[in-house]
Every structure is written in C-alpha cells, then in structure tokens.
Amino acid sequence: MSGRIDAGALRPMIALPGDPGNGLFIDELGDRVRVDIAYAGSCTAGKKEDKMGQRASDTSDVLFEEVRVPETNRIGKEGEGFKIAMITLDYARPTVAAMAVVGREVRREVPLP
Questions:
Q1: pTM
Q2: How does DSSP assign 2-21, residue by residue?
C-alpha cells in the first residue's frame, strides 16, 4: 500500500509554537485540550521585533503554513484579510496617538532622576 495513510493509526499531538520536537500525544494528557485550528499545517511565531517605543509587550509575526481554515471560522470573506487588518488599525491609531501625547506630558511634568 504505497502512498496510503491509515488515519486510524494516527495519534494527534500538541506542542508549543516553534517547539514541535517536544510535543505531547493528546490521548495521554488526561484533561480536555481546546484546539482552535486543527486542519494540518503549522502555526509558529516569527522573529521578535526590535521596537523603538512600546517594549512592554512582545511583537512578532504569526506564521501559518499550509493551514486550512473552515469558512465558518473566517472573519469576513476569503481574500479580505488585509482590508480587515487595515480597518482594525484605523481604530487603533487614535488610541496609540493619545498614549503618546500623555507620555510626552508626563515626561514634561515628572523630572528624570
């Protein structure tokens, strides 16, 4: 049976992003595990960005390779992801600008040690 896979013999695993070598078999965990995307492929974190300002939170890419997302789990229609991301940024920009103004005002009023 060359080229065939026995799906009944497969044992699903979970692993931390970027660490697939240390995965655990799901049937050995005991507790229920929630899996949001389980359609093959991989999801890993990209390189951590070296930011100039807001360093309190890490920022990196999320890389999806060969991942299929069912239509019921999509936000918007296929091919509209970039448009949705840009609309989201339009809502976030005023908040970021306000934080920058407040930060500047605080630095004016509080002397540096």
A1: 0.38
A2: TT---GGG---EE--TT-GG
DSSP 89-108: HHHHHHHHHHHHHHHHHHHH
Cα Rg of the chain, angstroms = 22
Q: Please check whether residues 31 and 84 belong to one and the same domain.
A: no
The per-residue DSSP string of 58-89 comes to: --EEEEEES----GGG-SSSTT-HHHHHHHHH
Q: Which domain holds residue 42?
A: 10-73
Tens digit of pLDDT for each residue in 3-29? 677 777 777 777 765 666 677 787 777
Distance CA 9, CA 27 (A): 13
Task: Supply 112's token pair.
Answer: 């540096």
**Total number of domains constituting the chain:** 2
Six token digits for residue 100: 């920058």
Ramachandran area for residue 93 (φ above 0: left; ψ -120 to 50: alpha; else beta):
alpha
